[in-house]
Amino acid sequence: MTTKKKPTTKQKKKKEEEVPLPVLEVSEALKPKTLPRLAPEGIRTFTVARKYDETGVSGEGVVIEGVTLATGQCVVHWLYPPPRGGIAIFDSMNDFIKVHIQPHPSNRTIITYDDGEQERFGLFSEEEKSDEEKDSN
Protein backbone atom coordinates (compact mmCIF):
# COMPACT_ATOMS: atom_id res chain seq x y z
CA MET A 1 0.00 0.00 0.00
CA THR A 2 1.38 3.35 -1.04
CA THR A 3 0.78 6.36 1.13
CA LYS A 4 0.59 9.84 -0.30
CA LYS A 5 2.60 12.51 1.37
CA LYS A 6 0.81 15.65 2.37
CA PRO A 7 2.19 18.79 0.70
CA THR A 8 4.39 20.89 2.91
CA THR A 9 3.57 24.52 3.71
CA LYS A 10 6.29 25.59 1.30
CA GLN A 11 4.75 23.52 -1.50
CA LYS A 12 1.28 24.93 -0.76
CA LYS A 13 2.58 28.51 -0.98
CA LYS A 14 4.32 27.77 -4.27
CA LYS A 15 1.14 26.28 -5.71
CA GLU A 16 -0.89 29.35 -4.60
CA GLU A 17 1.62 31.68 -6.27
CA GLU A 18 1.27 29.83 -9.58
CA VAL A 19 -2.48 30.37 -9.82
CA PRO A 20 -3.01 33.38 -12.11
CA LEU A 21 -5.42 36.01 -10.85
CA PRO A 22 -8.34 36.81 -13.14
CA VAL A 23 -8.01 40.05 -15.05
CA LEU A 24 -10.79 42.42 -14.04
CA GLU A 25 -11.99 44.00 -17.25
CA VAL A 26 -15.30 45.67 -17.82
CA SER A 27 -17.26 43.43 -20.11
CA GLU A 28 -18.56 45.14 -23.24
CA ALA A 29 -21.94 43.58 -22.45
CA LEU A 30 -22.15 45.61 -19.23
CA LYS A 31 -21.36 48.98 -20.74
CA PRO A 32 -24.33 51.26 -21.50
CA LYS A 33 -25.31 51.18 -25.15
CA THR A 34 -26.70 53.81 -27.44
CA LEU A 35 -30.44 53.77 -26.91
CA PRO A 36 -32.48 52.01 -29.57
CA ARG A 37 -34.92 53.90 -31.77
CA LEU A 38 -37.90 52.42 -29.91
CA ALA A 39 -36.62 53.53 -26.51
CA PRO A 40 -35.50 57.14 -26.96
CA GLU A 41 -34.91 57.90 -23.27
CA GLY A 42 -32.77 56.33 -20.58
CA ILE A 43 -33.60 55.75 -16.93
CA ARG A 44 -34.63 58.90 -15.06
CA THR A 45 -35.16 58.98 -11.30
CA PHE A 46 -37.55 61.21 -9.38
CA THR A 47 -39.15 61.84 -6.01
CA VAL A 48 -42.69 62.90 -5.19
CA ALA A 49 -43.21 65.27 -2.27
CA ARG A 50 -46.52 66.46 -0.87
CA LYS A 51 -47.13 69.60 1.14
CA TYR A 52 -50.34 68.04 2.50
CA ASP A 53 -51.99 64.60 2.52
CA GLU A 54 -55.75 64.89 2.06
CA THR A 55 -56.33 61.14 2.52
CA GLY A 56 -54.10 60.80 5.59
CA VAL A 57 -52.57 57.60 4.20
CA SER A 58 -49.06 58.28 2.89
CA GLY A 59 -48.14 61.44 4.77
CA GLU A 60 -46.38 64.67 3.89
CA GLY A 61 -42.89 65.33 2.54
CA VAL A 62 -41.21 62.87 0.18
CA VAL A 63 -43.66 59.97 -0.13
CA ILE A 64 -42.47 58.25 -3.34
CA GLU A 65 -39.23 57.51 -5.11
CA GLY A 66 -39.43 56.33 -8.67
CA VAL A 67 -37.95 55.85 -12.12
CA THR A 68 -39.08 56.25 -15.67
CA LEU A 69 -37.58 53.62 -17.93
CA ALA A 70 -36.34 53.78 -21.50
CA THR A 71 -39.62 52.14 -22.54
CA GLY A 72 -41.59 55.04 -21.04
CA GLN A 73 -42.92 52.90 -18.19
CA CYS A 74 -42.93 54.37 -14.70
CA VAL A 75 -42.07 52.40 -11.55
CA VAL A 76 -42.92 53.98 -8.21
CA HIS A 77 -41.95 52.95 -4.69
CA TRP A 78 -44.32 54.26 -2.05
CA LEU A 79 -42.31 54.89 1.11
CA TYR A 80 -45.32 54.15 3.30
CA PRO A 81 -45.94 51.91 5.19
CA PRO A 82 -42.40 51.62 6.51
CA PRO A 83 -40.08 49.85 6.32
CA ARG A 84 -40.85 48.51 2.82
CA GLY A 85 -43.71 50.50 1.33
CA GLY A 86 -45.13 49.27 -1.95
CA ILE A 87 -44.23 49.09 -5.63
CA ALA A 88 -46.44 49.98 -8.60
CA ILE A 89 -45.78 49.95 -12.35
CA PHE A 90 -47.53 52.27 -14.79
CA ASP A 91 -47.46 52.34 -18.60
CA SER A 92 -46.26 55.95 -18.49
CA MET A 93 -45.49 58.84 -16.17
CA ASN A 94 -48.68 60.50 -17.41
CA ASP A 95 -50.74 57.49 -16.29
CA PHE A 96 -49.18 57.69 -12.83
CA ILE A 97 -49.92 61.43 -12.61
CA LYS A 98 -53.53 60.94 -13.77
CA VAL A 99 -54.15 58.29 -11.11
CA HIS A 100 -52.24 59.53 -8.07
CA ILE A 101 -51.47 63.24 -8.48
CA GLN A 102 -54.19 65.11 -10.39
CA PRO A 103 -57.15 63.77 -8.35
CA HIS A 104 -55.65 65.38 -5.21
CA PRO A 105 -54.94 69.07 -5.98
CA SER A 106 -55.02 70.07 -2.31
CA ASN A 107 -51.93 67.87 -1.68
CA ARG A 108 -49.77 70.45 -3.49
CA THR A 109 -47.46 67.83 -5.02
CA ILE A 110 -43.96 68.43 -6.37
CA ILE A 111 -42.22 65.89 -8.61
CA THR A 112 -38.46 66.46 -8.71
CA TYR A 113 -36.30 64.68 -11.32
CA ASP A 114 -32.64 63.78 -10.96
CA ASP A 115 -31.62 66.63 -13.28
CA GLY A 116 -33.36 69.20 -11.05
CA GLU A 117 -36.47 69.67 -13.22
CA GLN A 118 -39.65 70.01 -11.18
CA GLU A 119 -43.33 69.58 -11.94
CA ARG A 120 -45.81 71.13 -9.52
CA PHE A 121 -49.44 70.08 -9.20
CA GLY A 122 -52.24 71.47 -7.12
CA LEU A 123 -53.38 74.54 -5.31
CA PHE A 124 -50.22 76.43 -4.32
CA SER A 125 -50.49 79.76 -2.52
CA GLU A 126 -48.73 82.79 -4.00
CA GLU A 127 -45.90 82.40 -1.48
CA GLU A 128 -45.41 78.75 -2.45
CA LYS A 129 -45.34 79.34 -6.22
CA SER A 130 -42.03 79.31 -8.07
CA ASP A 131 -40.80 82.46 -9.81
CA GLU A 132 -41.74 80.90 -13.19
CA GLU A 133 -45.30 80.27 -12.00
CA LYS A 134 -45.63 83.82 -10.70
CA ASP A 135 -44.36 85.23 -14.03
CA SER A 136 -46.81 83.14 -16.08
CA ASN A 137 -49.88 84.57 -14.26
How are the secondary structure elements laid out?
Blueprint: H1 9-18, E1 44-50, E2 61-68, E3 74-78, E4 86-90, H2 93-100, E5 109-113, E6 118-121, H3 131-136
Antiparallel strand pairs: 1-2, 1-5, 2-3, 3-4, 5-6
Descriptive account of the structure:
The structure is a single chain. The protein is α+β, with helices and mostly antiparallel strands and 137 residues long. It has a domain at 44-136. The chain is 18% helix and 25% strand. The chain has three helices and six strands; from the N terminus they run αββββαββα. It has helices at residues 9-18, 93-100, 131-136; strands at 44-50, 61-68, 74-78, 86-90, 109-113, 118-121. Strands 4-3-2-1-5-6 form a six-stranded antiparallel beta sheet. Strand 2 and strand 3 (74-78) form a beta hairpin. The longest helix is centred in the N-terminal third of the chain and has 10 residues, at 9-18. The radius of gyration is 27 Å and the shape is elongated. The chain starts with 8 loop residues before the first helix and ends with a helix.
